[in-house]
Every structure is written in structure tokens, then in C-alpha cells.
Amino acid sequence: MRTPRSTTSPATGGDVFALIRAGQATTRTEIGTLTGLSRTAVAARVTSLQASGLVVEREEGVSTGGRPPVKLSFHVQAGVVLSAAIGRSRTQLAICDLAGDVIVAEDVEQEIGTSPAELMPVIAQRLIALRESLGETAGRTVGIGISLPGTVDTERGCSLNSPMMSGWDGVPLQPFLADVTDAPVFVDNDANVMVLAERRGERRDFADMLLIKASTGLGAGLVSGGVLQRGALGAAGEIGHTKTAAAQGVVCRCGDVGCIEAVAGGWALVRNLQEQGREVTHIRDVITLALAGDAEARRMIRESGRQIGEVLSGAINLLNPEVVIVGGDMAQAYDTFVAGLRETLYGNAIAVATQQLQILPWTHGELSGVVGSATMALDHVLSVPAVDQLLAGAPRP
């Protein structure tokens, strides 16, 4: 959690809001204790936050004489954030409150290979319709969060390198959403936003976390020291195209040879079952078979976990996370997948790195992408600098 900046620089309204949003301060007295601000200064900042709609003050408990006790809280209904998790064949949309919780959601199916010029106008129309379905209760739109598979240029708001999304690289997405809202648009990698979704609630205290997204493709999201790590070019976590002996000579959909995704990704499992004459078209079909007890589907999912564990063990040695989160479509067959993952991850990683390592399923299930995209946007628009600008009446970043 963010703490006040220093004793020589008084805590701002944004600093005070950060304490209230995190639940670290619920009264004016607590704010004064944590920030060192005078009662007058605390009152001024709280009043400003109340006027912005971000903070509400409610009477709680029974008065024993004098003014009843009051509590300050983050007003999560003060607005909404729009969210879109764009995939190869399906896009998930949602309207979330300012805590990042989903209010309403829907899926949009699209043909594989659909271009941004074809899909983005549909996304814009559906987001408008979803927001309008809430009526006046929606409040103002504070931002839009979008996730994409592959490497993302977060500054330009576009795909940088995605073998899955042909025709999307280098195409900024914000212009397609100009008619939806004038609020800022933020774009990031799908696994990155999913790991942000996990850093909420009871998992907030995990400062070193690695999320593996095992779906049609493979990716990872990494939080180290409490900070999301994107890498120099945004390519941190692109484990799907790590070379492995198990894929020697096997052509990957990226055009290279020997990638782990070519033998352990969802699309590879679909390919293998199709070669056996099975009628499957997506990894979700394989999961359905496995959950129904199909021995071959279960074997393939466990083997996928085993092969991914071999690659992941090196990351465990390098990064020493507290927890590995398993997400993506294969998380629906969690027990089967993790049985294979544990076998090689614990077998290949050094003992000290796995001594206290936890492996857990994703918290938000299939909503992880939209919850994470909303969380990513909210981390920007509700940051200390952004709130300070809002309170000062300055343009939003």
C-alpha cells in the first residue's frame, strides 16, 4: 500500500483517498494519525473528496452523547469503468463499479482473424448498450480497460506483437471508442491484467505472484515486490514461446519451431485430438470432455501441466514467487492440470524456492479478464496523481 510521501511534503487529497480506498483509514482521526495532518487540513481534504463523489461519510453505531460516530468510505458507486477482454474467438465485455466488481457483462463471439476495423465498432456499440442498460445508476464513466493476448504497447494502446491476432499489431484502439466516452482508454496484455485481478481482497498481501494463463495460448503475469512487471518492451511473461525439448521439431503457430505452446497450449491439444478423429474445435471442448471423464482428454491436460511445469520451474528459481495462480480455460480442469504441473515444477525447481510456494486457482474464473482490465484502468484513474488532478479541477491524464 502507498504511504504518505514524506514528512516534509504534506499528504495531499490523493494520499488521503488512497488510505480510505485501501481501508487503512476510516475516520478523520485515523487519517490525521497516519498522515500527520492537522484536523483542519484533514477536514479540508475530506470535504474535497466528498465533493468529488469519491468518498462518503456515514453515521455508524449508537451515540453515547454528542455527535454519533461516523465512518469514511470509498464511494464505489460514484461511477463506472468499461472493460473488454479481447480474445482470438471471443470478447468479454463488462461494466464495473469503481471497486472493479462486475455490474453487468456479456460475451461477443467473433470469427478467428477478425480485424480491429471489424470488431472494435461492435465492441463500442455493445459497451454503449451495456452502459445504457444501467440507466442513471451508472454514473459517469471514468475509463476503459482493454486486454489483448500477446505483447502490448501500453503507451500507444495497441498490440505490439501477437501471433494470435493477425492485423492488430500497431493499431491504436482508442479512436474506435471515441463515441463511447471521452474518458481515457488503457490497454495491456491479458495475463498482466489477470494477475492484477488476483491482487484484490484476501490475496492483496501477496507481493510476489506469478499467474500462468493456460488457454488456447500460454502466457504469464508477474508481480514482484508488489509491482506489475512488464519488461523493457512489454514482453515479460511470454512463456508460451520458450523453447523446450518436448517440442523439438514441432512448428508453432508463431512460425518458429520448438515452442512450449506447440505441445502444451490449448490449440495443440485440440490439434492432437482432431488428429485422432475427435470432434473438438476449442480448448473448452477438451475441458468439457475431461470433466465428463474422457481418459484421453484428461491425460492430455495433465501432460500439458507437466510440460508447462518444466518451463515454469526456471521462472520459480529466478523469481521466487510466494504463489503461482493457475488461470485460463485449463483452470476449469484445475485438479487434473495441477497434478501434472506440481510433478515437474516441484521436481525441477530448487527446494528453497518451493519450500513455501503455494499453487492456487484463479479467483474470478471466466470474469478474470474483464475484472483485471477494469482494475488496470482504475489503478490509473484513481492513482494519487490522478485524484489530485481531479480535486484541482485539472484535465484527467
From TrEMBL:
<dbReference type="InterPro" id="IPR000600">
    <property type="entry name" value="ROK"/>
</dbReference>
<dbReference type="Pfam" id="PF00480">
    <property type="entry name" value="ROK"/>
</dbReference>
<comment type="similarity">
    <text>Belongs to the ROK (NagC/XylR) family.</text>
</comment>
<protein>
    <recommendedName>
        <fullName>Sugar kinase</fullName>
    </recommendedName>
</protein>
<dbReference type="InterPro" id="IPR036390">
    <property type="entry name" value="WH_DNA-bd_sf"/>
</dbReference>
<dbReference type="InterPro" id="IPR036388">
    <property type="entry name" value="WH-like_DNA-bd_sf"/>
</dbReference>
<dbReference type="InterPro" id="IPR019885">
    <property type="entry name" value="Tscrpt_reg_HTH_AsnC-type_CS"/>
</dbReference>
<dbReference type="InterPro" id="IPR043129">
    <property type="entry name" value="ATPase_NBD"/>
</dbReference>
